[in-house]
Design a protein that fits this description.
43% helix, 91 residues, Rossmann fold, globular, mainly alpha
């Protein structure tokens, strides 16, 4: 059972090309991005090092990195999330 709403489901399952997610605070952006990344890895065979994720703040980038690392561990992946290019948009 998914915790995502219909709009989040669309974003999570989008796999052809880039995706921009814009939403207000507390709307589930981080959840949606993490689930999309996991969907790309599990369903579409993307390698974590092939993914680019950009956020607007360093805090959001760190939160994403932590959540992605935890989800990859759940999958039994030994991928080092530090090899992903995950940054805030200021760089």
């Amino acid at each position: 059972m998914s915790l995502a709403n219909p709009s989040q489901e669309i974003a999570i399952h989008h796999h052809k090309g880039p995706l921009l997610i814009i939403a207000g605070p507390g709307s589930g952006k981080t959840y949606t991005l993490v689930e999309r990344i996991m969907n790309l890895i599990r369903v579409h065979g993307a390698k974590p090092e092939q993914l680019l994720v950009v956020t607007f703040t360093e805090k959001a980038a760190q939160e994403l990195k932590t959540r992605i690392a935890n989800r990859l561990l759940e999958l039994g992946s030994d991928f080092n999330v530090d090899e992903m290019y995950l940054t805030d948009g200021s760089h």
